[in-house]
């Protein structure tokens, strides 16, 4: 069994009109949401063997903030140009090339590719993974090269605006 977590980058800023899309930073909401989603992943014991992310500034920032919360070393995040503007097919091919010994992988990327990738991998269709949305999938394969369209099962779909029950009080 393999686990794959798909994350859309957190909310980015459009404040600087002349700034290239690739260089857009996170806005204040994105800076809040990424650590929150990281804490939610930590609460369910996410422990990736590999974290891959787009090289775009907003995706790099999202990945680093989430890594800090789940205890993944930021220096070990692999930033791949491929994941900036990648189609679902390009990301799917990258997944099939992952080393078999990796059990759990996180990918931080962009829409529409990340949503389309989810819809390629599993039969639980999502119209749109919102910014900083997290989809956790289980793939019943022994090696990533055996990944096929529709083979995954969605085990969780979370996003910043989704309401979570309050933590139990310590009274």
Can you describe this structure?
- By secondary structure, the protein is an alpha/beta fold.
- The protein has one domain (2-12, 23-158): 3-Layer(aba) Sandwich (Rossmann fold), CATH 3.40.50.
- The chain is 28% helix and 19% strand.
- A six-stranded mixed β-sheet has the order 3-2-4-1-5-6, with helices on both faces.
- Helix 3 (88-96) crosses helix 4 (113-121).
- It is globular.
- 38% of the residues are buried.
Main β-sheet: number of strands, strand sense, barrel status?
A: 6 strands, mixed
CATH class reads: Alpha Beta
The CATH topology annotation reads as: Rossmann fold
Total helical elements: 4
Query: What count of domains describes the coordinates?
Result: 1
Supply the CATH architecture: 3-Layer(aba) Sandwich
The span between the termini is 40 Å
Going by helix content, strand content and strand pairing, the class is alpha/beta
What integer is the average pLDDT? 94
Work out the helicity level: 25-40%
Overall shape: it is globular
Read across the widest sheet, the strand sequence of neighbours is: 3-2-4-1-5-6
Order of helices and strands: EHEHEHEHEE
The fourth-level CATH homologous superfamily is Phosphoglycerate mutase-like
Gyration radius (Cα, Å) is 15 Å
Topology:
Layout lengths: L1 E7 L19 H16 L6 E5 L2 H14 L7 E3 L7 H9 L7 E6 L3 H9 L12 E6 L13 E6 L13
Parallel strand pairs: 1-4, 2-3, 2-4
Antiparallel strand pairs: 1-5, 5-6
Helix pairs in contact: 1-2, 3-4
Main attributes?
171 residues, alpha/beta, Rossmann fold, 4 helices, 6 strands, globular, disordered C terminus
């Amino acid at each position: 069994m393999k686990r794959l977590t798909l994350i859309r980058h957190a909310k980015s800023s459009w404040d600087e009109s002349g700034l290239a899309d690739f260089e857009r930073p996170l806005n204040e909401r994105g800076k809040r949401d990424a650590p929150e989603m990281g804490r939610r992943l930590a609460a369910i014991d996410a422990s990736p063997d590999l974290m891959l992310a787009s090289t775009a500034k907003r995706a790099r920032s999202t990945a680093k903030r989430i890594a800090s919360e789940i205890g993944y070393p930021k220096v070990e995040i692999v930033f791949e140009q491929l994941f900036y503007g990648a189609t679902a097919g390009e990301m799917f091919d990258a997944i099939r090339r992952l080393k078999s010994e990796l059990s759990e992988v996180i990918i931080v990327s962009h829409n529409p590719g990340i949503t389309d990738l989810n819809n390629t991998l599993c039969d639980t269709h999502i119209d749109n993974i919102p910014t900083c949305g997290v989809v956790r999938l289980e793939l019943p394969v022994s090696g990533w090269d055996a990944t096929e369209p529709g083979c995954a099962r969605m085990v969780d779909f979370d996003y910043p605006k989704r309401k979570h029950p309050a933590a139990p009080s310590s009274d």
